[in-house]
Amino acid sequence: MGDVELAGWTRGQHTYAGTTHPTYRRGSGPGVVVIHEIPGITPQVKRFAEELVEAGYTVVMPHLFGTPGRSISLGSVASAMRQVCVSREFTKLALRETTPVAGWLRSLARELHAELGGPGVGAIGMCFTGGFALAMMVDDAIAAPVVAQPSAPFIGLPGRAADLNLSPEDLARVKERAAAGCQVLGLRFEGDPMVGKRFDTLRRELGPNFLAVELPGREHSTVTTHCKQEFVDAVMGFFGERLQR
């Protein structure tokens, strides 16, 4: 896949189970993994990540698909979708199945936590990757998971609108960790059709340990393209309470 440098960010890479992806890192303080949405690390994703850096976090952005720094367009979305659809690292339609890339992301979080210490690492996934932060929560290294407009598996066939992109075993572990005090923050616009009924599922499965911030509207990208300050403030408060100790 194509790759360019992001100004001000240090390019690295992480390898787990024979799979290597580039990473971009910046900042100091507790660790946060920012998982980009489709079509990739857009200028809007980069801007949100830089807000976290300015707030006192070490931010690592894995580059999973797309071209870093490329703006959102029909072409960039189509190109990223082609990469996603042919890759075996991502589940697109399967029910009750954890995305395979979760193992790589958990390993990245463990490495960051081992380096930086503290209570754990924060993680935020967006849109197609929204549920990835839940899948990472299976590992104790994740102390602050944020699920922003989760949109996988893709809605369109029966049952998918409420699915969390987790295997039954991983869902049981997520519920166990939530019950032990690891709360989950969710962000969405109330009328966003791509989120489907997933917030209902999260409320049912996690109860009061699912903290939802929902704003009126049918927009989609809560902290990037359609960013609202209320969403950003919620993320900052969530990470601050759980990571800044």
From TrEMBL:
Taxonomy, superkingdom: Bacteria
Transferase keyword on record: no
Domain Dienelactone hydrolase: 28-150
Gene Ontology MF annotations: hydrolase activity
UniProtKB keywords: Hydrolase
Stored InterPro entries: AB_hydrolase_fold, Dienelactn_hydro, Dienelactone_hydrolase-like
SUPFAM superfamilies listed in its UniProt record: alpha/beta-Hydrolases
PANTHER family named in the record: ALPHA_BETA-HYDROLASES SUPERFAMILY PROTEIN (PTHR46623:SF6), CARBOXYMETHYLENEBUTENOLIDASE-RELATED (PTHR46623)
Entry protein name: Dienelactone hydrolase
